[in-house]
């Protein structure tokens, strides 16, 4: 089994990614590190522990809080503004929608976060691992960027970094920037520039495999707690996007779960291009943008791979089989 460290900002799509990673049985999850992103750090930690408790592995998979702020920048107030723990809601045409993507309707966690900082955990775990470790940042990649800065020697024992981040000519927080890279572009740049193998699962791929309200019903119909949570979260995301003004009311991208899916089965990504990448950190209109070199795609000195599309049916089946298998 591949050894992985998930690095999350849980978050509804992070929650589905965690469920897929655990219930697939295909990965050796040696730990989960948490950063700020969808919510402030403490809320993301609590959400992560809640999901693991629901899966019955709260005492088996250690969770570490990492950086409460991006590497260089201060928190972006809008993204991290405190919202009540029961989420926020908005009434549209008499219907109340829970519109915060980071509200998980689960009992408060009983498992506890580890004392060690997430960055220290990444460094020690990668150093001590007999096999190379796959790092999976699906939030702002602060913890991994910080670990690479503190101890660049660990890069030798990293199999690859599989990001959820970026988009080619596509943004979701500015016209050209995706939220995870936008919220810590320096960290993303440090990782990509390090020369480590990177697979970048961005908005082009995740939006090519959107899950639908019908899919949500199928997950719920499995009758398992994970199936119900997955279906509820997908439904909430689709409804929330409509309220927030960007959604089509039928489907939404479940970004982070696609990054986990492609570690279990790389063929879920149907168009992956070897391309030199950079991240704009200049603070202007394209701040946080993933910049992709479209020339020289066969340059073997390039170690970054960008996903452009995914197999929606395969992606659905992987999540379905995982959540349906919950005992
Ligand atoms: C990414 O940003 C986070 O809010 C989501 O969990 C996902 O990782 C999408 O841009
Ligand atoms: Ca995330």
TrEMBL record:
Any one GO cellular component localisation term in the record: cytosol
Claim: Hydrolase is one of the keywords in the record: yes
Keyword Hydrolase: yes
Stretches assigned to the Inosine/uridine-preferring nucleoside hydrolase domain: 4-317
Pfam families tied to this protein: IU_nuc_hydro
Entry keyword set: Glycosidase, Hydrolase
InterPro entries named in the record: I/U_nuclsd_hydro_CS (IPR015910), Inosine/uridine_hydrolase_dom (IPR001910), IUNH (IPR023186), Ribo_hydro-like (IPR036452)
Gene Ontology biological-process entries: purine nucleoside catabolic process
Superkingdom of the source species: Bacteria
MF terms in GO: purine nucleosidase activity; uridine nucleosidase activity
Name under which the protein is recorded: Nucleoside hydrolase
Lineage, broadest ranks: Bacteria, Bacillati, Bacillota, Clostridia, Eubacteriales
């Amino acid at each position: 089994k591949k050894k992985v460290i998930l690095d999350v900002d849980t978050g509804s799509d992070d929650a589905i990614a965690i469920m897929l990673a655990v219930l697939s049985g295909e990965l050796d999850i040696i730990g989960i590190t948490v950063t700020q992103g969808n919510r402030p750090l403490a809320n993301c930690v609590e959400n992560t522990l809640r999901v693991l408790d629901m899966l019955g592995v709260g005492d088996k998979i250690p969770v570490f809080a990492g950086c409460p702020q991006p590497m260089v920048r201060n928190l972006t107030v809008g993204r991290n503004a405190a919202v009540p723990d029961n989420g926020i809601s908005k009434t549209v045409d008499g219907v109340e929608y829970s519109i915060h993507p980071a509200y998980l309707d689960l009992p408060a966690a009983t498992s506890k976060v580890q004392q060690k900082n997430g960055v220290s955990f990444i460094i020690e775990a990668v150093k001590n691992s007999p096999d190379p470790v796959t790092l999976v940042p699906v939030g702002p990649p602060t913890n991994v960027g910080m670990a690479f800065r503190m101890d660049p020697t660990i890069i030798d024992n990293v199999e690859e970094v599989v990001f959820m981040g970026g988009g080619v000519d596509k943004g979701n927080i500015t016209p050209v920037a995706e939220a995870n890279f936008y919220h810590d572009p320096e960290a993303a740049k440090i990782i990509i520039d390090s020369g480590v193998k990177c697979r970048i699962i961005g908005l082009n791929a995740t939006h090519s495999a959107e899950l639908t309200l019908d899919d949500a019903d199928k997950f719920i119909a499995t009758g398992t707690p994970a199936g119900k949570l997955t279906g509820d979260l997908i439904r909430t995301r689709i409804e929330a996007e409509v309220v927030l003004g960007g959604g089509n009311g039928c489907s939404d991208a479940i970004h982070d779960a696609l990054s986990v899916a492609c570690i279990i089965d790389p063929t879920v990504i149907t168009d992956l291009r070897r391309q030199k990448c950079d991240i704009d950190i200049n603070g202007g209109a394209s701040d946080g943008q993933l910049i992709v070199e479209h020339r020289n795609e066969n340059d073997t000195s390039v170690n970054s791979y960008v996903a452009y599309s995914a197999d929606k049916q395969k992606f659905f089946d992987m999540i379905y089989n995982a959540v349906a298998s919950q005992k």
